[in-house]
Amino acid sequence: MYRREKSIALRSSSSALYNNLSVLRPPHKPVACLGAVHGPTVTVVSAGGDAAGCAQRQLQARAGGGASLVTQAAWCVLPARILLVLTCQKGIQMYESDGSIMVYWHALDVAEHPPAQAVFARGISAAGERFICVGMSSGMVLVFDIPPKGTNITVSEVLKEHQTPTDIAAELGRAPDGAGDLVTADDAGMLCVWSSGEEFSLLNRIPAFGWTCSSVRLWNGIIAAGYGNGQIRLYEAATGSLRAQVGAHARWIYALDLAPATGKLLSGAEDSFVHVWKLSRSPDTDDVEIEHCHAECVTDTQICGACFCDPEGNSFAVTGYDLSEIFCYSQV
Amino acid sequence: MSARTLPLLFLNLGGEMLYILDQRLRAQSIPGEKARKDEWTDVDRKRVMNDIITTMFNKKFMEELFKPQELYSKKALRTVYDRLAHASIMRLNQASMDKLYDLMTMAFKYQVLLCPRPKDILLVTFNHLDAIKDFICDAPGILNQVDETFRQLIEMYGSLSAGEFQLIRQTLLIFFQDMHIRVSIFLKDKVQNSNGRFVLPISGPVPWGTEVPGLIRMFNCKGDEVKRTEFTTGGNYVTPQREGSFELYGDRVLKLGTNMYSVSRPAETHTSGSSKTLASSAKENIVPNPLAKEELNFLARLLGGLEIKKPGGSETGFRLNLFTTDEEEEYAPAGSGLGQAALTRPEELSYKVVNIEATEEPARRAELERILGDLEVAEPCAESCGKGEDLLALMDGL
C-alpha cells in the first residue's frame, strides 16, 4: 500500500511530454532534486525543505536565439559526475547538477531537415562509465564523452538505427555479462540493445509492432518497455526475446521507472493510473516474472511523469499534464 | 514540435465557433415576414454562416494553412478568428469576441484531452467538417470548398503514424496548457470541475486497437506462454464496438467534436470567472514566436480596421443577445442540472455573462463585399513575405 503525502508545488504546470519528471537520486543519498518541463522552461525543485522552503530554479531553453520548447530534462548520474541534461527544439544543453552553470550546448542543424519534419532532441541517459546518450528527431543517437570535470565534452559516436527516438535507458555497472547495458526506443516502437564502451556495439534489434514505445527501462538484464497501446512488455536484453506482456493501462503510457535495489516497476499513463509492479527471476527456470502490487488513481490527471524516489521503490513521485504540483506517495 | 498542427487547430476551433454562432443566431431569429428592419431573420443567419464558411475555406488561405509550420502565438491565432467572425454582416464587440474565443478554445481543449487515441483528433476534425457541411448543404459552391479541404486532410494525415499523431496532440496540449476557463455546459454535464480541470473517465471503451487492461501473460525463453494472471486495474473498461470512419463520408463513431449546442439546450454558452484575466495569465511565451514584429504591425492595422462604428443616420443597427442573460438562470426549471450548478456554485465563481452585440451596417457590408471581390484577383506576395506572414496577410485581405 502506498499513501499520498504532501505534494510539492511547482512554479508552473507540467507539459504533456513523455517521461516528464526526473528525480536526482545521488548514490547512497536521499533524493536531492526533482525536475519537470513546462513549455520552454524546466523547473528544478530541491527536495527536503518544507513547502515554503523548497528552492526552485527555472531553466530556459534559450541558447541559440529565441525560445524553444523543451522536450525532456533528466539527470545523468555517472561515477565521476552528475549532469542535468535538457533537450529542446534547438539542441541539447548540459548543466551542473543543480542547474546553476551550463557546461555544454549542442545546437541542432535545423536547415538540413525537410520542412515538414519536426526538429528536436529527446531521450536522455547516462551510459557506461563516462558517456551520455541523447536521441535526435532525425533518428540519430549521439554519444557524448563526458570528462570528470570541465567543459571539454565531445561527440564520440553516432548511433544510427532509429527513426525518431523517444527514450533511452541504461544499467550502469549492474548488467549481467553479455546482456547489454543500454537500450534505445523509438516512435515506431522498435528497441535496440547496445553494449557500451569505447565503441558501442548493437546486440539486438527488437522489432516494432505498430505502437510507439514511449518509455523504456533496464534492470538485471530485463528490458521493461511501455507502449502507446497501454501495454508493458518485458524482454530479455541478451536475446531480445519477449518474456511478458502486460495489459497495464487503458491509454497511452507516458512513463516507466525501475527501483534498482528491488526490481519494482512504476508505470504512469494518460488513463490517470499509476501502477506499481514487481519484477523477478525464477531461481529454478530463470524465467522472468512480474506481479501487480499497487494501483493508484490520480483523479482527473493525465500522467506525464512518474519516478521512484529511493532505490528500494518505497516512495514515488508523479506529475500530470496541466498540473502545477508533484504528487508524492510513500509505502505504509 | 509537430509542424503539422496548425490545420487541425484552425479547423476545429473554427468549427466550434460556427456551432456557437449558429446556435445563438438561431435562438434569436425572428420569422422573416414578421421581422422589423433591425431584427435578425433566418436569411441573415444563413448569410452569416455562408460568408464565414466561405472565408474560412478560401482556397489560397487553405494552401497557406496546410504548409508545414510552427503554431502561431495565442494572440496571432485569436486575431485570425477576430477577422473570421467579422467576415459577414455580424459585428461583435471585444467582450463578446473574448467570450466566444474562450468557449471555442475550451471546447477543443476538451476534445484533444479526451480523444482516446492521438489519431482520433482526425475524427474530431471530421465531425466538425461534417457539421459544417450541414450548415451549407444548400450552397454547392461552398460545399465543394469544404470537400476539397477534407481531401487535403485525408492526404496529409491519412498516412501519419501513431507517434506522429501523438506529437501533434502534445503540441496542441502545450498550446492549451494553463487555460482553465469554466464553461457552464461542461460544468452542468459534469465533465469539468469547478477548478476548471476536465473530468477524466476511468470507465468505458478503451481506444480502438487496444485491449482492456488486467491481463499478464508470461513466456519462457522459447516463446511459449507459461503463465497467465489477472490483476485489478481500478478502472471499468470495455472493448470498443468499432472504429470510426476516416473516409470522406462515414460514421465517425466518436462523438467528440460534434455539435453540443442546440436550440433545445439554450442555456449553455456561459463562461464564468474573469475569463480575460484567466486567459491572459496563461503564459504567452509558450510557443516560440519569430513573428512578433509582424504580429504587432498586423494587430495595429486591425485596431483601425475592426473598430466598431456606432450605427447612426440612415444605418439600421441593433443589439442582439447572442449569449443569453440572467433570465435563463431564473427560468431554469427547479432540479435541472443548471439549477443545481447554480446552487453549488461558490460565491467567488459567480458567472459574468457577456452579450454579443450584433449590428447590421449596409455601408460596411458594401465595403466588405468590395474587399471580398478584390480578393479574387489579388495575389499574395509569396516571395517577399515570410510563410506565417503570408497566412496572416491573406486573412487580413479577406
TrEMBL record, chain A:
GO molecular function: protein homodimerization activity
GO cellular component: motile cilium; vesicle
Key word Glycoprotein present: no
GO biological process, one term: regulation of epidermal growth factor receptor signaling pathway
Domain WD repeat-containing protein 54 beta-propeller, residue spans: 1-332
WD repeats: 246-287
Pfam families according to UniProt: WDR54 (PF21031)
Keywords, comma-separated and alphabetical: WD repeat
Residue spans crossing the bilayer: none
Protein name: WD repeat domain 54
UniProtKB/TrEMBL annotation, chain B:
Gene Ontology MF terms: transmembrane transporter activity
Pfam families attached to this UniProt entry: Oscp1 (PF10188)
One Gene Ontology biological process: xenobiotic detoxification by transmembrane export across the plasma membrane
Entry GO CC: basal plasma membrane; cytoplasm; plasma membrane
InterPro entries, alphabetized: OSCP1 (IPR019332)
Domain of life: Eukaryota
The protein's name: Organic solute carrier partner 1
Biological source species: Gallus gallus
